[in-house]
Amino acid sequence: MTSSSPPAPVSWKRILAVAACCGVSLLAQAAAPEASAPAGAQALRAEHQKLSDKLDQSRFGRPVQLDSTETPGGLEGDIYAVVEHPLSKVSAALKGSDHWCELLTLHINNRRCRISTSPQGKETLTLFVVRRYDKPVDQAFELPFAYRVASATPEHLQVEMSADTGPFGTSNYRVRLEAVALDERKTFLHFSYGYNHNTMVRLATQAYLATFGSSKVGFTVVGKGADGQPEYIRGLRGLVERNAMRYFLTLDAYLATGANDPAERRQRYWFAAAERYPRQLHEVDLDTYLAVKREDRQRDGSGR
């Protein structure tokens, strides 16, 4: 039963913090009973067949389909894509936790990543996320994800990460990547994510998006303006779509560059890809982005 009392006032600083938190959070849809690798591969191929027309006619100029959902408990997002890489390469690049640390920190707000292993052999990937790119790392909040490879066969890859709690009233974080071979050169990817938030977080984020974030839009076209130009979705679904694309592009950049390439080459690739969608994704100029990432590498002694 819900209360009829009005919500408690929320400061603008807290609204900004909550909105930024939700904007960089990773989470997948609620976990389904785990399927065997052959069943998982078959189901993903069936999904590819179902989406084939949308992928062929994608407005992204490549076979990519982005879906988003606002649920009673939070937000969910899915990206489906065909990439020009064999599954063997995709698996080699994306089934290691250290690789995920590298690719996730391509995002400008993700300033550090650490991996730890329990005595039982379970891996934890901790992501350090700042509200704004120019905030110091000691102001970052930490997201510790339990990391596991659920399936890694010649036909199918499935990687999962989960975190029970997050900052500012968010919870139930999960990430899931699935990949299946289409042929010797192409792989079909499904990247899913989302998170739960309480009523206060939802109201605070909506308030931010209606004021300071009112110019921010997502990718789903909801109509046309008087000038004939597309009108894009706004609000919470717009937020989750922007971040969905940012994270898909980190995967794409990691696959497109060699494991031994300098970190800056991968960063330039990601930045250039994001700048193809300036209406949704532009935040800073290239020099500023590279300077932030260079500072992170120098501080932590990581990367080339």
What would your notes on this structure say?
The chain is of the alpha+beta class and 304 residues long. Helix content is 38%, strand content 28%. The chain contains 9 helices and 10 strands. It has helices spanning 12-24, 37-56, 87-94, 97-104, 199-210, 235-256, 263-274, 278-281, 286-300, and strands at 64-70, 74-83, 110-117, 123-129, 141-152, 156-165, 170-181, 187-197, 221-224, 230-232. The strands form 2 sheets. Strands 1-2-8-7-6-5-4-3 form an 8-stranded antiparallel β-sheet. A two-stranded antiparallel sheet has the order 9-10. Strand 6 and strand 7 (170-181) form a beta hairpin. Helix 1 (12-24) crosses helix 5, helix 4 crosses helix 6 and helix 7 (263-274) runs antiparallel to helix 9.
Give the gist of this structure.
The protein has helices at residues 12-24, 37-56, 87-94, 97-104, 199-210, 235-256, 263-274, 278-281, 286-300, and strands at 64-70, 74-83, 110-117, 123-129, 141-152, 156-165, 170-181, 187-197, 221-224, 230-232. The protein has 304 residues and is α+β, with helices and mostly antiparallel strands.
